[in-house]
Specification:
By secondary structure, the chain is α/β, with parallel strands linked by helices. It has a domain of about 100 residues: Ribonuclease Inhibitor (Leucine-rich repeat, LRR (right-handed beta-alpha superhelix), Alpha-Beta Horseshoe). It is flat. The termini are far apart. It is found in: Cell membrane; Membrane. Keywords: Cell membrane, Glycoprotein, Leucine-rich repeat, Membrane, Receptor, Repeat, Signal, Transmembrane, Transmembrane helix. This is Leucine-rich repeat-containing N-terminal plant-type domain-containing protein.
Length: about 625
């Protein structure tokens, strides 16, 4: 993009759901201000001031990104002020006990178990993000009222301790981006817990998924080293709404019992594992799924038709599997489907025609690349895809929710790009590497919101349609490896956002347009078209030869004895010019004769006058 900018769990196109960084509310923004005459307890104030002294004495850790200088965030912590008004401290509005503490970014290495947290008996929320911590602090066990604990982005090694599950009040636990390698043996099931959100993303956890509290609703195990099958016990988590286990090494069949969770499960992301077999689910009309991401596994069979019952489905990514099916036209009834990724499977046959004029009303990203689709491009679908034609009301935002964001992998601008947030305004159409034939329909120019268009590696013929010039938001256009003919339309110069153009290996000819974005494209955008000339190719378009050719053509016309422009017109010119020439010659001759006669007479008169003067002189002397 100009900068493509703008545009890819992670799909090919392709999604990767990752949880939000934290649900921990920034305490610097939520500090309660005490009512007049009410102050925090002296013991809690003393504990916090001691903490400030310990932090000020600690040396900054150079490996911690964006770490503040010692105590720089605690300048408001002073003896003569109320601790409830201090930055990063949150107090209860009524009791004025300290219930929240945010120390993110401070170096707590070696201090975490020596600081006086035990004097903060009413602490409910503790944020120790990016504090250079090497272990889970043991004092947390004694914080009986702790509700939220965020220890992400640290250097915590070892295993997740089993006492974590026994913290009766703990609801939110974030241990992502550490070096944890497994779980201690959990307590004998069943065990009671209040934990609803567990984030273990980006660790080194090995083995299989352990038995977890049934209270969990958000579970992220993404980017670990998990193996084995999904345990059946996971299906007993009746409150589970988000399950993200992408980027692991799990294998086997995806358990059919997951369909039982269809009424509560909103996100199921198993991208980039080694699951195999069929997708046997039978979702009911109560299906709550918004995202189903099974990209890059080894799934076979057909796309389950019961997905049409998932009316809230927004993202469906089944790319890079071994699915053998036809185009799932019946998904057109889903009113909120925005992203459909089916690339790199064994889908075949024509796309066909829509069943209704409002099929796929919200579709923004369609990737059918690297399949075996045949027939003409689906112009009937192009004509009804509203979300690619008309900008709907809505602000610029990322697709997802409070707990996660949708991601995608996409082939754009000639390169594979992974882990790109999906903007709600992003529009992509990729039908490359199939068996489509026929001409590119003019109606494709009505998809005015497209930013990426890839029709490469098909059997398309005809000329590049002028209507493509209406895609003024286009950033990447790939029509390479087809059988297109004719010239590159000059109107494409209006695509001022275009940062990548690939027209290589077609049968194009003529002069390459010059100006705007076309001045930035290199040779590889046009290679394989022997009829093209001009910048940036070494083959020049010689205008002088064209002028010489035109002159030679005119000369040959005049010299042709059969041509009506030969001697007839020459004789007419001679007949008209001869009398005029004679008249002009006669006038010139007559004037010359009169002039000569006048000169002779004047000379004789002067000679007679001189002779007369000489005779008079001689008489005088005599």
């Amino acid at each position: 993009m100009i900068g493509y900018w703008r545009i890819a769990c992670c799909f090919s196109f392709l999604l990767f759901l990752c949880p939000a960084n934290s649900s921990f509310t920034p305490l610097s923004q939520t500090s309660s201000h005490p009512f007049l005459g009410q102050h925090c307890s002296s013991s809690e104030k003393t504990a916090l001031l001691q903490l400030k002294r310990d932090l000020s004495a600690a040396k900054p850790e150079s490996s911690i990104p964006f770490q503040p200088s010692s105590g720089s965030l605690l300048t408001s912590w002073k003896h003569n002020t109320d601790c409830c008004s201090w930055e990063s401290v949150n107090c209860h509005e009524v009791t004025k006990h300290v219930i929240g503490l945010n120390l993110s970014g401070h170096n707590l290495s070696g201090l975490v178990n020596s600081i006086k947290f035990l004097n903060l008996h009413y602490l409910e929320r503790l944020n120790l993000v990016n504090c250079n911590i090497g272990e889970i602090p043991s004092f947390v066990q004694k914080l009986g009222g702790l509700v939220e604990l965020d220890l992400s982005i640290n250097k915590i090694h070892g295993k997740v301790p089993k006492w974590i599950w026994l913290l009766e009040s703990l609801v939110y636990l974030n241990l992502s981006n550490n070096f944890l390698d497994g779980f201690e043996a959990p307590p004998s099931a069943p065990f009671l817990s209040s934990l609803t959100s567990l984030d273990l993303t980006s660790n080194l956890i090995e083995g299989s998924i352990p038995t977890l509290p049934i209270s969990i609703s958000f579970l992220s195990l993404a980017k670990n080293k998990l193996t084995g099958e999904i345990p059946v016990s996971l299906c007993s988590l009746s409150n589970l709404t988000i399950l993200d286990a992408c980027y692991n090494y799990m294998s086997g069949l995806i358990p059919k019992c997951l369909e039982v969770l269809g009424d509560t499960l909103i996100v199921l992301n198993l991208r980039k594992n080694r699951f195999s077999g069929l997708m046997p689910w039978k979702f009911t009309k109560e299906c709550s799924l918004k995202t189903l991401n099974l990209y890059a596994n080894q799934l076979t069979g057909k796309i389950p038709m019961s997905l049409k019952h998932c009316k809230r489905l927004q993202v469906l990514d089944l790319g890079d599997n071994q699915i053998n099916d036809t185009f799932p036209f019946w998904l057109g009834v889903l009113p909120d489907l925005r992203v459909l990724i089916l690339q790199s499977n064994s889908l075949r046959g024509p796309i066909g025609e829509p069943l209704a004029s409002n099929d796929f009303p919200m579709l923004q990203i369609l990737d059918l690349s690297s399949n075996y689709f045949t027939g003409h491009l689906p112009l009937d679908y192009f004509a009804i895809w509203k979300s690619m034609r008309i900008k709907l009301n809505g602000s610029l935002m990322y697709m997802g929710s409070y707990y996660y964001r949708e991601w995608m992998s996409i082939t754009s601008k000639g390169q594979r790009m992974d882990d790109i947030n999906i903007l709600t305004i992003f529009n992509v159409l990729d039908l490359s590497n199939n068996l489509f034939e026929g001409e590119i329909p003019e109606v494709i120019g009505d998809l005015k919101l497209l930013e990426v268009l890839n029709l490469s590696t098909n059997n398309l013929i005809g000329e590049i349609p002028l209507s493509l010039s209406k895609l003024t938001l286009l950033e990447s256009l790939d029509l390479s490896k087809n059988k297109l003919i004719g010239e590159i339309p000059m109107k494409l110069l209006s695509l001022t956002f275009l940062s990548v153009l690939n027209l290589s290996y077609n049968r194009l000819e003529g002069k390459i347009p010059i100006g705007n974005q076309f001045s930035t494209f290199a040779n590889d955008s046009y290679e394989g078209n022997i009829g093209l000339c001009g910048f940036p190719l070494s083959k020049k378009c010689d205008d002088v030869e064209d002028h010489q050719s035109s002159g030679a053509q005119r000369e040959s016309i005049l010299s042709d004895p059969i041509s009506p422009f030969s001697w007839k017109f020459a004789l007419v010119g001679y007949g008209c010019g001869a009398p005029v020439g004679v008249a002009i010659g006669y006038i010139l001759f007559w004037r010359t004769k009169r002039c000569t006669k006048w000169i002779e007479q004047s000379f004789k008169a002067k000679k007679r006058q001189k002779n007369e003067q000489n005779r008079r002189r001689r008489r005088k002397f005599k």
